[in-house]
Design goal:
globular, 19% strand, alpha/beta, 8 strands, 8-stranded mixed sheet, 273 residues
Length: 273
């Protein structure tokens, strides 16, 4: 059984989707950028045979509201959104959490920061989305390291992350999605990522335009002033080894003492970013 509901968090209406029997163990799926909940549909259909699956359009994407202010996309508010969703769908119950890309990046906040969800997350599976604080520590340590190897790794990651600087441009980034990038996006995915979308995303322009605020509201502060982050729950890393944007080295911070990582699984292809 599939249901749809609207959950309000901090004055923002979030569109929430559930799949399967609500009496089963809950699994929450958080999508990345520039996607919406529909990216999880094939996964949700399979998991719903065994779990109660919950997904939602994060603020700025899909059928959820899109706040205009940059500050409205801060990590603490994204974590509050997740709390509002699980409180409405599985109140008081523990759940498994899965994030991809920006869904993974923002979910680290709920997993590692002190808050109401920390004790309720049974496990966390992260796909191609490092914790920004871990990333900040990684960049700082290697920037200060004088060895050529460390400098090379930083340089390669900066080149791979060129789009982050582009997303910080005030007009060009959101304007690109309004100027036709939404129509070109399926073609880009096919030729660059070898991903064939089954059908066009009707909210692709909105998802891309407003989603750039995720980068603007969080990256600079997290990279300049990273905090120590530890995960009390089991953490599973799924690491695409051919990711064109997130290098595998950024996920190695999880296995070097900052979190309690239980497994690191490499995958040969990237799919979506």
């Amino acid at each position: 059984m599939t249901t749809t509901a609207t959950v309000t968090s901090q004055g923002v209406n979030l569109q929430v989707y559930t799949f399967g029997d609500s009496s089963k163990v809950p699994v929450v799926l958080v999508h990345g950028y520039p996607d919406n909940h529909s990216i999880w549909q094939p996964v949700a259909d399979r998991l719903a045979k065994k779990y109660f699956v919950i997904s939602y359009d994060v603020r700025g994407a899909g059928a959820s509201d899109a706040p205009r202010k940059r500050a409205d996309y801060r990590m603490s508010l994204l974590s509050a959104d997740l709390a509002a969703v699980v409180d409405a769908t599985v109140p008081g119950r523990d759940f498994h959490l899965v994030g991809h890309d920006w869904g993974s990046i923002q979910s680290w906040e709920s997993v590692t920061a002190e808050g109401p969800l920390k004790a309720r997350i049974k496990s966390y599976t992260t796909i191609s989305g490092p914790c920004l604080d871990h990333m900040g520590h990684w960049m700082r340590r290697r920037t200060l390291n004088l060895s050529p190897s460390a400098k090379t790794k930083v340089f390669k990651q900066v080149l791979s992350s060129w789009y982050i600087g582009f997303f910080h441009l005030p007009v060009l980034a959101p304007g690109a999605w309004q100027g036709g990038l939404d129509k070109l996006w399926p073609r880009y995915l096919k030729h660059r990522e070898n991903v064939q979308e089954p059908e066009a995303n009707p909210t692709q322009g909105k998802d891309g335009k407003h989603g750039v605020q995720l980068y603007r509201a969080n990256f600079r502060n997290k990279l300049i002033n990273p905090e120590a982050r530890h995960a009390p729950c089991p953490v599973q890393l799924i690491v695409p080894t051919r990711d064109n944007y997130v290098g595998t080295q950024l996920l190695k911070t999880c296995t070097s003492g900052w979190t309690s990582c239980t497994a690191a699984i490499s995958m040969p292809t990237t799919g979506y970013r």
